[in-house]
Automatic annotation (TrEMBL):
It comes from the Eukaryota. Pathway: Glycan metabolism; cellulose degradation. GO terms for molecular function: beta-glucosidase activity. SMART domains: Fn3_like, PA14. PROSITE patterns: GLYCOSYL_HYDROL_F3, PA14. PANTHER family: BETA-GLUCOSIDASE, BETA-GLUCOSIDASE B-RELATED. Residues 400-568 form the PA14 domain. Keywords: Carbohydrate metabolism, Glycosidase, Hydrolase, Polysaccharide degradation. This is beta-glucosidase. It comes from Crucibulum laeve. It catalyses: Hydrolysis of terminal, non-reducing beta-D-glucosyl residues with release of beta-D-glucose. Belongs to the glycosyl hydrolase 3 family.
Length: 848
């Protein structure tokens, strides 16, 4: 079929209505087919840490790899390509032709809700890892979609906010990772951002789409909107936005027919977009991935090994002052403490979430590794830090004992008192329209619903709840519409009587209401029933077409003092304590930004108390982006774990117990406080004008902002420890050629008795320039494996990108003649070797 699919021939045959049809998706995850002309419908799926498939509700199991900030902190191009290839294989297994990943938006602030989705605050690292990931995905015939183009750096007012950014910062910081990735991997698709850029929405922005992307960079791929991110007809098509997603169309379809009549658009404009959609379809055909295939998953020993390797390599050792790590023989008792220890926090929230094939929590991974030392593990949660109560998934079962619950749908009220606070549970209900089992108490009813169920419907969710601990239990619920939660036919939560609006699900759900149920017994079964109607929700309106959401959580009531005291007692009775704290997808996710950089709840007090109770304490922080650490001076052993995917627990344990020598280094600067972040205070809801956020820090983002202000961070960019020690020597720099190419070589030696890997980093500085420049900028990195005592030579081949900056006045890149500093080091602040090189004559350029 691929040989027969000639884009130009098919385009010439298509009628104008069929060309217009191609420019909008079919539902959430498909393109429109033109069956009579042999044009199939290709399937798309969210990424970037896995392939969710085409359903949020009752999603298909998938492998979850570490969050992008973790993968970025590996500084490992080969690993990124392997991860991309594995995700490409998973896409093939799910019949998916287009992966909506990777994300390369620069982290202006750690507060950004989706910070964990991008690889780094540094454009060179961000773009280079993205290119490797894309090359891996596309090696499997799957189209990668680089996103969100561009300056989509916060979630507050994300559909409308105007990112006001200088031309130079736009080019050097925010466009640069896209530019690098396009140059070195050529992604077959690109997704536009929701926001405005300097006054014009990205999806209709002629400057960034047509002038820079298409003309200056020569990009030939298909340009896709973010979901519901098209706000015009004529303008978006003129700018070059090829495909509006999702379907059915809002801004195209009949609207295009009208503007063609008015000659605001011409047939050639439609042809240009339709051609690009057909080219994406051709990639799908060439891939050999079947159309409308069943959605399967992959789970092999080889894949599990890669997941575990990625989790370990996404782990950064920040402190090991007493050489407590790796843990050795002789330890008899290990305390594992903290809210992030028992549950597996594998990923951030929103588009990145998926149903994992399996998970390994930190507690599980540590317990398994402890067996090799003959050590006993004792657990205490210590403190509750949830924004929403933990899901009840581990504790629910259907009639007959199978895991999960039953969800039933009606197109009309099943009874007059169905959502009453005191319904007649014995009353005969009307015949159901459709029913399905589900495994979770968090149901996003966006897809996976039988078409015969009306959008406005009545829903009942029933399950058996079996607590694992005696005591009082706290239950919480939010939903879209109105509803009530009952346990053993007794009302627990009333959300049917004038429910207050909340912030969940992009502000569309009710407030999360909590209620304590007293005296539950471990092992006893309780009937849990939720009844709801989404009629009120649909009356409010939404940018998405779906049936609604419902989330029910619960946990045993734990008083603050009870939790802390229990943790302290367990820590004191152990040889070593491991405290696992951090964030989760309730705190970091799509649709909201973090209000601050603090750890939630009593996390900081918990860490401080355990540190006092046991001097041999290992603190593990798990978050997608930086947090503040007021106890850091008291902690002698500290690990940053990020969201580690399926194998989070084993990867962490491999580092703690020495099976893996840590080699990760921070892809983000960790500040001491929010006020030190370069973008503070112009971020999120702190705009100085309505609807605008001004990028006041200009080019000084991340570590560049700290260095220009001579401000010491908590932990610097590029920093991370190893169980090995390394020595750098013999720096040599070649002269710069007329076109800006030169080489830098030096030796690296492992001076310890432990095999290890060192991430060597090369920074450049311009000692005298016509415009201010950063103190130094990362322009190269390499991960080198060295056996104990081994010496290797590192070589960097650099070009004009290592020398230039963007001159907004002349609208071109320029490398100015003069002396440049070469800085080789183990981090942005730990510079081991310095040298200089001279550029004899200035030169300029444009394009990739």
């Amino acid at each position: 079929m691929a040989a027969e699919f000639d884009v130009e021939t098919i385009l010439a045959r298509l009628s104008m209505p069929n060309k217009i049809k191609l420019l909008t998706g079919k539902g959430l995850w498909q393109t429109e087919p033109i069956s009579e002309e042999g044009v199939p419908s290709i399937r798309l799926s969210d990424g970037p840490n896995g392939v969710r498939g085409t359903q949020f509700f009752n999603g298909f199991p998938s492998s979850c790899f570490p969050a992008s900030t973790g993968l970025g902190s590996s500084f490992d191009i080969e690993l990124a390509q392997k991860v991309g290839a594995a995700i490409g294989d998973e896409a093939r297994a799910k019949g998916c032709h287009v992966l909506l990943a990777p994300t390369v938006n620069t982290q202006r602030s750690p507060q950004g809700g989706r910070s964990f989705e991008s690889f780094s605050e540094d454009p060179h690292l961000n773009g280079t890892i993205a290119a490797a990931y894309i090359n891996g995905v596309q090696s499997k015939g799957v189209s990668a979609t680089i996103k969100h183009y561009v300056a989509n750096d916060q979630e507050h007012q994300r559909f409308s906010i105007d990112s006001v950014v200088s031309e130079r910062a736009l080019r050097e910081v925010y466009l640069k990772p896209f530019q690098i990735a396009i140059k070195h991997s050529n992604p077959w698709a690109l997704m536009t951002a929701y926001n405005r850029v300097n006054g014009v929405h990205a999806s209709e922005n002629v400057k960034i789409l047509r002038d820079i992307l298409r003309k200056e960079w020569g990009y030939q791929g298909t340009i896709i909107s973010d979901w519901t991110g098209v706000y015009s007809t004529t303008e978006s098509i003129k700018a070059g936005l090829d495909l509006e997603m999702p379907g059915p169309s809002v801004m195209r379809g009949k609207a295009i027919e009208r503007v063609l009549i008015a000659e605001k658009l011409f047939p050639s404009d439609i042809d240009a977009c339709a051609r690009k959609v057909l080219e994406l379809v051709k990639h799908g055909i060439d891939s050999g991935i079947p159309f409308n295939a069943p959605q399967e998953f992959i789970d092999t020993p080889e894949l599990r090994h890669l997941l575990r390797t990625a989790a370990a390599d996404a782990t950064v050792l920040l402190k090991n002052d007493k050489s407590l790590l790796p843990l050795r023989q002789g330890i008899k008792n290990i305390a594992v403490i903290g809210p992030n220890a028992k549950p597996a926090m594998i990923c951030g929230g929103g588009s990145a979430q998926l149903a994992p094939t399996y998970t390994v929590s930190p507690l599980q991974g540590i317990a398994a590794a402890a067996q090799t030392l003959g050590a006993e593990v004792n657990y205490a949660v210590g403190a509750a830090t949830h924004k929403y109560l933990p899901l009840l998934d581990p504790y629910i079962s259907q009639a007959g004992g199978k895991a999960g619950a039953l969800v039933e749908f009606w197109n009309e009220a099943p009874s007059e008192d169905f959502i009453s606070v005191s319904p007649n549970f014995g009353a005969l209900l009307k015949s159901i329209t459709w029913s399905t089992p589900t495994l979770s108490t968090n149901s996003w009813l966006m897809d996976g619903i039988d078409p015969k169920v009306n959008l406005t419907c009545w829903i009942r969710y029933t399950t058996k709840f079996t607590p694992d601990e005696d005591g009082d239990w706290d239950f919480g619920m939010n939903l879209t519409g109105r509803g009530n939660l009952f346990i053993n036919n007794e009302l627990v939560i009333n959300l049917s009587t004038n429910p207050e609006p909340g912030t969940a699900f992009f502000g569309l759900a009710t407030a999360d209401v909590r209620k304590v149920v007293k005296g539950l017994k471990a092992g006893w079964e309780y009937d849990l029933e939720l009844r709801m109607c989404n009629e009120d929700f649909h009356a409010r309106g939404s940018s998405f077409t779906f049936w609604g959401i419902v989330r029910v959580g619960g946990s045993r009531v734990l008083t603050e003092e009870e939790g802390i005291n229990e943790a302290v007692e367990v820590a004191r009775a152990s040889d070593v304590a491991i405290v696992v704290v951090g964030l989760n997808y309730d705190w970091e996710g799509e649709g909201f930004d973090r209000p601050d950089l603090e750890l939630p709840g009593l996390s900081n007090r918990l860490v401080a108390e355990v540190l006092k109770a046991n001097p041999n304490t290992i603190v593990v922080n798990q978050s997608g982006a930086p947090v503040t650490m007021p106890w850091v001076n008291e902690a002698t052993t500290l690990i940053q774990a990020f969201y580690g995917g399926n194998e989070l627990g084993n990867g962490l344990a491999d580092v703690i117990f020495g099976k893996v020598n840590p080699s990760g280094k921070l892809a983000l600067t960790f500040p001491k406080c929010l006020e030190d972040v370069p973008s503070f205070p112009s971020f999120g809801d702190q705009g100085q004008e309505h609807g605008k956020i001004v990028y006041n820090e200009g080019i000084f983002v991340g570590y560049k902002g700290f260095e220009i202000r001579k401000l010491a961070p908590l932990f610097p960019f590029g920093y991370g420890l190893s169980y090995s020690k390394f020595e750098y020597s013999k720096l040599e720099i070649s002269p710069i050629s007329s076109d800006g190419t030169f080489t830098v070589i030096f030796n690296v030696k492992n001076i310890s008795d432990v095999d290890g890997r060192e991430i060597v980093q090369l920074y450049m500085s311009d000692q005298k320039s016509s415009l201010p420049r950063p103190v130094k900028e990362l322009k190269g990195f390499n991960k080198i494996a060295l056996k104990a005592g081994e010496i290797k030579t590192a070589k960097f081949s650099l070009d004009r990108e290592a020398l230039g900056f963007y001159d907004d006045r002349s609208a071109q890149w320029i490398a100015e003649k003069g002396i440049f500093g070469v800085h080789v080091g183990a981090s942005s602040v730990d510079i081991k070797l310095k040298g200089e090189v001279e550029l004899k004559e200035s030169f300029t350029w444009t394009g990739l």
